[in-house]
Specification:
This protein has about 170 residues and is α/β, with parallel strands linked by helices. It is about 40% helix and about 20% strand. It has a seven-stranded parallel β-sheet with strand order 1-2-3-4-5-6-7.
Length: about 170
Amino acid sequence: MIEIVMSEKSKEFEKHAKELGFSDVFFCGYGRSLNLDKIDAVIIKPKSTNDLRKFFSLFKDKKIRVESEDAELTRAALESKKVFMILTKKINHVLCKITSQNNVFFGINFSELMNVEGVKRAVLLSKIIKNLNLCRKFKVKVIVASFASTPEKMFHAAEIKSIFEKFYPLK
């Protein structure tokens, strides 16, 4: 399993990830604030299709992960074929089909699930399960990661796998 973290490349993260049972670590960051040579991917949160185009031209040499709750923006990002992962709670069969065709990953933030309790956690988990069922139906690749900002906030690979294995086989 691969862990995705919100940090510049760090030996501390890599060591901690190995101890937690991950085979590799992927480093992400929010574009302009980081040294682009020290991350594997850039995270963008476009507000419009014009923003999307600007981000694509600005970060053309990096892998791009898009975070958006707007279905039209998510679709535009997927159709551009410049995105390696989308992170959204609002996915539908059309987005799944495009995601699968363009070999894009659907990301699930495990930390977000673990940081809510009670009814909010149940509602979030039901949305995730619905999305995983759609992903399985359309053969979309899924990545579940902690997106931790510090090594202490990472979860063990077995914890992540045990929760999601029933709904979607993780590798």
